[in-house]
Amino acid sequence: MINQIYYSESPLWHEKIGVIHALLERVKISEERSADVLQLRKLNRIMSIHASTAIEGNNLTLGQVTDVINGRHVLGTPKDIKEVQNAWQAYKELAHYNPWSVADLLKAHGLMTAALINESGLFRSVDVAVVRNDGKVLHRGAAPEEVPDLVAQLLGWGHASEAHPLIKSSTVHFMLEHIHPFRDGNGRIGRLWQTLILSKWNPLFAWMPVETIVHNNQALYYKALQDSYNNGIDCRPFINFMLDAVENSLYKYVDIATETAAKEFGVGVNVGVNVGVKAGIIDKLREQPALSAKELALLLNRSARTIERHIRELREQGILIRIGSDKTGYWQIKDDKTNE
Predict the structure, then answer these.
(1) Is 26:254 a contact under the CB 8 Å cutoff?
(2) Burial (0-12, 13-18, 19+ Cβ within 10 Å), 224
(3) I need a surface site. Which of 53, 85, 163, 201 has the fewest CB within 10 A?
(4) 3-59 residue pLDDT tens
(5) Residues near 147 by Cβ (< 8 Å), separated by ≥ 6?
(6) Residue 211 above 90 pLDDT?
(7) Average pLDDT value for the chain
(8) Are residues 93 and 239 in the same domain?
(9) pLDDT band for position 272 (50/70/90)?
(10) Domain end: 258, 290, 313, which one?
(11) How many CA atoms lie within 13 A of 302 on its CB side?
C-alpha cells in the first residue's frame, strides 16, 4: 500500500525544516573547526547509545557506557552491559544498512538484541502489548501474522514516498512503534531507523545525538506517541515532537563541538558569569512568554549567544516548550527546575 496516508500535514513543518537546513550548515562549520572530528563523533555516538538504552530502563551512567564501549571493566548487570555492547555494534553498521530493506531491519534487530531475547533478529510470533505500571494497556501491537506484511508496506511506502526525509523518518519511527514487530527492542530499533533514514539524506545525522534529546524529554516523547492515536492513526503530533528533537540535537552538537574546540585550544570556560542565567530566563518568560532571545539578552545584560545557548539547554531538559512558530509563537514553562 504505497499510497498509505500515515499523517495529516502541518503548516508549521516547512518553517521547522528550513531551520534544520540552516543548522546543518552550522554543524558542518563547527566540525571543520574541531581538531578531532572522529573523537567528536564518537562522543556523540556514545551519548546516543546511552540515551536510547536508558529510555528502555538501562541503568548504566554515561561514564559507564563510555567504559563499556572502550573495553573497560564496569560494575553493572550483565544485561545492561550486553545492551550497550549490542547497541554499539548495531550503530557501527549504520552506513551499511538499506533503510528500505526488511532483511536489514531484521539484521539490525539481531545485533541490537543478541543473547538478550528469544526471536532475536526475527519478527515476533506472539501477541504483545505496552502496559503502564498500573496495569493499563496503552497499546497493543499488530497481530503477529500481520507483522511481516505491515513492515514491508511501511518500508515500501518510505522508499517510494516523496515526503521530506525529516517527515518520512519520523513517520517510519512512529509506525515501527505502532506495529511493534519484535518481542523487545522496538523503541531502540525505531530510533535507530530514524537516524539511519536521516543519515542517508545527510551523513551528519549518523552522529547527531537525537536520542539524547528524546531521553531528556521522555515524558513528551511518550505523550507524542499517545497523541498520535487520538483520531485513529495520525503521526502529526509525533512528527512535531521529532522535528523539535532533531533541531535541538543539532544545537547540542554545535555546542559540544564548540566546547571541544575551546578545550583543544586551551580556552578557559567562565562558569561563574553564567550562574543564575537560566533562572533569570524562566522568571522573565513567566512574566512575558513571547520575549525573544534578543529581548531577554537586553533584560538580563547578557549576550544574545549566551541566552540562546541557555534556552537550548532548557529546551533539551524539557523545561521550555516552544508553542507556535519562531516568529509569532511563545514559550511555555513545563518545569521550574533550572539545573544551574
Answers:
(1) yes
(2) buried
(3) 201
(4) 578 999 999 999 999 999 999 998 988 888 777 888 889 999 999 999 999 999 999
(5) 123, 124, 141, 179, 181
(6) yes
(7) 88
(8) yes
(9) very low
(10) 258
(11) 20
- Measure Cα distances from 52 to 21, 187, 212 in Å: 25, 8, 7
Residue of 145, 144, 161, 149 whose CA lies nearest to 4? 161
Whether residue 234 is contained in a domain is answered as yes
Measured CA to CA, the distance from residue 73 to residue 333 in angstroms comes to 41
Concatenate the DSSP letters of all residues of 290-335 into one string.
Answer: T--HHHHHHHHT--HHHHHHHHHHHHHTTSEEEES-TTT-EEEE--
Burial status of residue 177 (CB atoms within 10 A of its CB: 0-12, 13-18, 19 or more)? buried
Q: Is 129 strand, coil or helix?
A: strand
| Range scoring the smallest mean pLDDT among 68-72, 129-133, 153-157, 205-209 | 129-133
- C-alpha cell belonging to residue 317: 531538559
pLDDT category at 299 given cuts 50, 70, 90 is confident
Identify the domain boundary among 258, 286, 314. Answer: 258
CATH number where 306 lies: 1.10.10.10
DSSP H/E element including 47? helix 37-55
Based on the structure, what is the number of domains in the chain? 2
If you count them, how many residues does the chain have? 340
